[in-house]
Amino acid sequence: MCLAVPGKIIEIKGSIGIVDFNGIQREVRLDLVDVKIGDYVIVHTGFAIEKMDEKDALESLDIWKELLKTEEDF
Questions:
Q1: Contact status, residue 51 vs residue 39, Cβ threshold 8 Å
Q2: Is there a contact between 64 and 34 (Cβ–Cβ < 8 Å)?
């Protein structure tokens, strides 16, 4: 099973994107998706594999924040 956190594309250099995952930035290959700066993507093994609309991405990020907060309370 793969758990994916959406990341926001903040920079594009050819087929490489800089994606922000809640403050952590990583280089990601963009060969498999058609995206622009500001888009949200799901990444697997260094490749953006799916573009998400912003509403769904933000909802998913809110759920992750709640899960992480619950985990910290234990």
A1: yes
A2: no
Average pLDDT, the chain: 90
Residue 7, pLDDT above cutoff 90: yes
Phi, psi of 61 (to 5 degrees): -65, -35
Eight-state DSSP code of residue 28:
E
CA distance 44 to 50: 9
In 3-state terms, what secondary structure has residue 12?
strand
Distance in angstroms (rounded) separating the CA atoms of residues 9 and 56? 15
pLDDT in tens, 14-31: 999 999 998 999 999 999
27 neighbors 16 (Cβ within 8 angstroms): yes
C-alpha gyration radius of the chain: 13
What the chain holds in terms of domains, given with CATH numbers, is 7-73 (2.30.30.140)
